[in-house]
Amino acid sequence: MATLNLDELKSLLEVTNSKLRDLEKLDLNVDMTRGKPSFEQIRLSRDILTNIDEEVFDRNPNIFNYGIGDGIEEAKQLFASMLEVRSDEIYVGGNSSLNLMYDTMLKAMYFGMVDSNRPWMKEDTVKFICPVPGYDRHFAICESLGIEMITVDMTPNGPDMDAVEALVKEDASIKGIWCVPKYSNPDGAIYSKETIERLASMETAAKDFKIFYDNAYAVHFLDGEFIEQESMLEACKNAGNPNRVIIFASTSKITFPGAGVGVISANRESLDYMEKLIAAQSISQDKVNQLRHVLFLKDFDTLLEHMKKQAAILKPKFDIVLDSLKSTVADERIATWSNPRGGYFISVDTYPGCAKKIEEECARLGLKITKAGSTYPYYDNPKDNNLRIAPSFLGRSDLVQAMDVFTTVLQKIAIEEMLKNEQ
Ligand code: PMP
């Protein structure tokens, strides 16, 4: 991409401002804040609602009663194949993985984890490493429980491991790290084998250090190709730290968000500990929904076929976003962006000091985008330069218009900021 000189930037700003005046007339009212599947995607899973007939009902009496608190065996097998773990290393929960993450963190605070000397809340401070940009709801969990967040930068291969290793080796109050290992939210990073092995084997001052491994996008490819990834649980076992990782996942973006199935996977010793605590809290999760999901998704191959249908709907939307950025942004200092192979987001890094202004200007023109700063703990991005684009929910024509507004605003604000700094 070119680097424009001062005169070129000034004339581009004029063109951009005149385009913006036209876009103002659109009277847009579009919400692109969250990564929600579109109705067309939701419809793919409609059969879930009708797949329990008389015969299935009669054949599975235990599923429609209390009991089997850790989930039905068929669901364990399905999720084990998805997460590349053993089926006895799976706990099948309720409708949300985020709920399981919050719950696990709360249990760690209140009771400690399997290898803790005491509950985390009895420590003077509890800290978590948050790779940035990252997922706002992970940060919200830490914030609501008073867990201090320390940022490290993401790279295309996962968190900056030199920084992570240096931090956890020295500071025993760092109890864990958030990870989204595949098509991470928002930058689409795929953790490399080296990253996974370093996380599994690194020396940690806290002996009960935990990797909260949110594998929300394990099968969410855009290009039709499932990517195998080194198993974090195996890596932890091989490194002699079998209880270090707790894996979370759900079918929220496979079937119905908010009405899917959430799971935890961990070493048996860790799971035993957590299941004992859960036993005081619940007699049974929603096994009917687990059964429906098993009947619908059947096995790993059928699940992948289903995800190919999802990808066929999603990929053209990602292409609209990427094409719009590519055809509008005229200087690499204005913005760079991720080009993900899967997941739900595109991460845009703008010229520093622009993200909030871009969000505000988009809102003025009727386009709501994810709040600037939300990819950082406490909404505090010191460079104010990162925005998350969520293209999944909008229809084609809304998305084209939304991106027209977004890229034009991005260009305007960034050039203005650049010119200000030049003078
Ligand atoms: N983790 C990540 C990384 C996500 O992006 C999302 C949804 N946007 C979730 C978890 C939420 O999952 P659930 O619906 O299972 O709570």
Number of domains: 2
User: Which CATH-level-2 architecture of the largest domain?
Assistant: 3-Layer(aba) Sandwich
Instruction: Identify the CATH class of the largest domain.
Output: Alpha Beta
Q: Which class best fits the helix and strand makeup?
A: alpha/beta
What is the rounded Rg? 23 Å
Order of helices and strands: HEHHHEHEHEEHEHEHEEHHHEEHEEH
Main beta-sheet annotation: 8 strands, mixed
Distance between the termini: 24 Å
The order of strands across the largest sheet is: 2-9-8-7-6-3-4-5
Low-confidence stretches: none
Strand fraction equals 5-15%
Bound molecules: 4'-deoxy-4'-aminopyridoxal-5'-phosphate
- What do we call the CATH homologous superfamily of the largest domain? Type I PLP-dependent aspartate aminotransferase-like (Major domain)
The overall pLDDT average reads: 97
**Treating each run of at least 4 consecutive H or I residues as one helix, how many helices?**
14
- The CATH topology annotation of the largest domain reads as Aspartate Aminotransferase, domain 2
Count the E strands. 13
The amount of helix comes to: 40-55%
Characterize the overall form.
globular
Question: Your description of this structure?
Answer:
It is a single chain. With 423 residues, this protein is an alpha/beta fold. The protein folds into two domains: 146 residues, Aspartate Aminotransferase, domain 1 (Alpha-Beta Complex); 234 residues, Aspartate Aminotransferase, domain 2, CATH 3.40.640.10. The strands form three sheets. Strands 2-9-8-7-6-3-4-5 form an eight-stranded mixed beta sheet, sandwiched between helices. Strands 10-11-13 form a three-stranded antiparallel beta sheet, with helices on one face. α6 links the parallel β3 and β4. α5 packs parallel to α6, α8 packs across α9 and α12 crosses α14. It starts with 5 loop residues before the first helix and ends with a helix. The mean pLDDT is 97. The structure holds 4'-deoxy-4'-aminopyridoxal-5'-phosphate. 4'-deoxy-4'-aminopyridoxal-5'-phosphate (PMP) binds next to α5. Keywords: Aminotransferase, Transferase. One of its GO terms (molecular function) is L-aspartate:2-oxoglutarate aminotransferase activity. This is Aminotransferase/MSMEI_6121. Pfam families: Asp_aminotransf (PF12897).
